């Protein structure tokens, strides 16, 4: 049975896409079949992080019935399977987010995990994703504004009977001028599964358009993402 997990945040720029990519790679390394879906129709970046700058097959075209599921699914050299969204503004204008449920219907029972890179905010697109997934992983930075926005997203998930798998605390410096892990857990009311320190290797992996967990599997951030993957694998 396929487990659908949405990576959500509330605030943009917290590292949802990086987290989706690297947890997916870590699950793949554990022997799980995984497909990543870029459901951020407004500002998609998942494909770009893997070198798909202008893919011919996209989620947009699948939703418009112009391409089959097979035609929009790419296998990356790292072993990750990916369904990208189009970075084109014109393609975005032609795509109806009300049809997002179709991708979930077609992927059910296809693989072990489908990881969804979700849009920020609390808009209609996110609500559609939350309604069609089993769990959310909440990605936050150690700032009060990021955590406050994430709290609203958690409340939205619970209102739609979506379980919270846990928190990924991302881009930490473990310094005095940020919230501690304990404070984040207290505010959000859920367990932190990974505390990912801001790292030059994450930026290098993004520049080389490869998953961190593929390029630097022994790095500290990679080990944190692996903790999340292990947690998900044990629950599946």
What descriptive keywords fit this protein?
eight-stranded mixed sheet; alpha/beta
In short:
40% of the residues lie in helices and 18% in strands.
Describe this protein's structure:
With 236 residues, this protein is an alpha/beta fold. The chain is built from eleven helices and eight strands. It has an eight-stranded mixed beta sheet, sandwiched between helices. Strand 3 and strand 4 form a beta hairpin. Helix 1 packs across helix 11. The longest helix is centred in the middle third of the chain and has 16 residues. It is globular, with a radius of gyration of 16 Å. The mean pLDDT is 95.
Strand content: 15-25%
The number of helical segments is 11
Task: State the share of residues found in helices, binned by percent.
Answer: 40-55%
Largest sheet: 8 strands, mixed
Through-space gap between termini = 9 Å
**What are the low-pLDDT stretches, counting only 5+ consecutive residues below 50?**
none
Overall strand count: 8
Output the structural class: alpha/beta
Shape assignment: globular
Mean pLDDT level: 95
Could you spell the SSE succession in H and E letters?
A: EHEHHEEHHEHEHEHEHHH
Q: Strand order, biggest sheet?
A: 3-4-2-5-1-6-7-8
Q: How large is the radius of gyration?
A: 16 Å
Topology, pairings included?
Elements: E1 3-8, H1 16-29, E2 34-38, H2 46-49, H3 59-63, E3 74-75, E4 81-83, H4 89-93, H5 101-107, E5 113-117, H6 124-131, E6 135-140, H7 144-159, E7 163-172, H8 181-188, E8 192-197, H9 200-207, H10 212-215, H11 220-235
Parallel strand pairs: 1-5, 1-6, 2-4, 2-5, 6-7, 7-8
Antiparallel strand pairs: 3-4
Helix pairs in contact: 1-11
